């Protein structure tokens, strides 16, 4: 990245692009098969684009876990007449930043460019999506890098626990395998299989596009045509619904580490659930507000069992979970798990205090505003809204919707969510079985 762009990006981060409201965002029909939202902002000469495609790890073939992530890692590693090095030079020469993130449901691509370089930036993006090269030498290099990262993750208890949680929780369902896949399947993916995956998943059908920055509606329509017109309009078949979710109990993945890490989950709402914001407030009180959450107070501050514990609502397209994590010593792990269960049980029984609800509302409202600190942040948040099926007027309605939630609404949310008997816990490390909590059922990896 050039110094000029770095300075501009820093300046942009200090400026909120207007007011984050539906009145500043237009829904365009510029790309057939795709949803396009656009916010015009001439504060700085930058354009930020975030596009998601139905090409996440959930679409991996059953015997090729990691295929989607492998394809994503190769996006930008050569396209059209440009090999990997030439493509990277073309981006760098014009200070174009291209970032690719494979997720469970989607492939998310972000592009940041000076508006004066927009035509070339969108042309290169279009080449990367519609004319990937997948040169054998480049594939070999990228595959080795991905396999090395997997090997490193095998020694990281946090990574092992998180991957194990998804495996136990979702079983053979598409969300059950890691986004990155596994070494054996990744090693077997061929160039022909990658090209076939790209043809059916790097498509306009189901695509979501959010653009914020220094351009006009007419100019943007031409840029989007340059980037996406060559892609197929068909969408892949929709993902199925999980057959089951959850494997209640404590599952231990043995590792020789000084401090085991635990991930835990209970069933959570889909983003389309009408009670999602009430659930979000309940989660914020339980474990989502840093050092003032109940879990921090009970597990960290009162009993001193962990340096930090947090929870979050994770709403993928076909399943939602309330996911939490913490680290503790092997001797303290069982007690920490018991404290988590007890905290959930008490919250479900007694509900929140009025002050907790008020503080949680202030936190959710304030943190949402901070997510629009720059054009790039704005585009990312808009695309997140698109992917989760929210409408544009959510920007204007959200604060009032949160304000209208009552203490009793949050109490009902806690009763729905916080059932410790449904909690799946995966520990990467070890714990003394003789001190196990009565609710815990120790097991090893499947």
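Q: What amino acid sequence fits the structure above?
A:
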């Amino acid at each position: 990245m050039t110094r000029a762009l770095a300075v501009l990006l820093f300046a942009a981060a200090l400026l909120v692009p207007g007011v984050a409201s539906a009145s500043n965002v237009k829904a365009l029909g510029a790309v057939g098969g795709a949803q396009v939202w656009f916010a015009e902002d001439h504060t700085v000469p930058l354009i930020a684009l975030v596009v998601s495609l139905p090409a996440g790890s959930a679409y991996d073939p059953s015997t090729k876990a990691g295929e989607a992530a492998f394809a994503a890692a190769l996006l930008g590693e050569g396209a059209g007449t440009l090999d990997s090095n030439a493509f990277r030079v073309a981006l760098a020469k014009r200070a174009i930043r291209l970032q690719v993130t494979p997720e469970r449901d989607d492939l998310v691509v972000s592009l940041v460019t000076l508006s004066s370089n927009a035509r070339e930036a969108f042309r290169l993006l279009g080449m990367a999506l519609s004319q990937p090269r997948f040169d054998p030498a480049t594939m070999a290099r990228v595959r080795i890098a991905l396999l090395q990262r997997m090997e490193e993750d095998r020694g990281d208890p946090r990574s092992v626990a998180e991957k194990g949680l998804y495996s136990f929780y979702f079983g053979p369902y598409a969300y059950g395998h890691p986004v990155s896949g596994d070494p054996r399947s990744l090693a077997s993916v061929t160039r022909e299989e990658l090209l076939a995956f790209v043809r059916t998943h790097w498509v306009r059908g189901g695509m979501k596009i959010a653009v914020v920055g220094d351009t006009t509606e007419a100019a943007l329509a031409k840029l989007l045509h340059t980037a996406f017109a060559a892609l197929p309009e068909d969408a892949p078949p929709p993902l199925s619904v999980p057959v089951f979710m959850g494997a209640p109990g404590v599952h231990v993945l043995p590792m020789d580490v000084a401090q085991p890490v635990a991930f835990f989950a209970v069933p959570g709402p889909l983003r389309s659930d009408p009670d999602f914001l009430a659930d979000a407030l309940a989660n914020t009180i339980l474990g989502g507000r840093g050092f003032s959450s109940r879990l921090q107070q009970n597990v960290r501050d009162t009993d001193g069992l962990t340096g930090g514990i947090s929870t979050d609502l994770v709403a993928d397209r076909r399943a939602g979970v309330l996911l939490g994590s913490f680290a503790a010593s092997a001797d303290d792990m069982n007690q920490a798990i018991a404290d988590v269960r007890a905290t959930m049980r008490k919250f479900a029984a007694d509900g929140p205090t009025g002050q907790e609800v008020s503080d949680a509302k202030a936190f959710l409202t304030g943190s949402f505003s901070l997510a629009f600190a720059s054009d790039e942040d704005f585009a990312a948040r808009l695309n997140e809204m698109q992917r989760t099926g929210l409408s544009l007027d959510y920007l204007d309605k959200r604060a009032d919707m949160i304000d209208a939630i009552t203490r009793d609404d949050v109490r009902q949310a806690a009763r729905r969510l916080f059932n410790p008997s449904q909690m799946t816990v995966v520990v990467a490390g070890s714990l003394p079985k003789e001190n196990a909590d009565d609710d815990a059922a120790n097991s090893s990896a499947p």
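Q: And what stands out in the fold?
A: Confidence is low (pLDDT under 50) at residues 1-19, 435-442.
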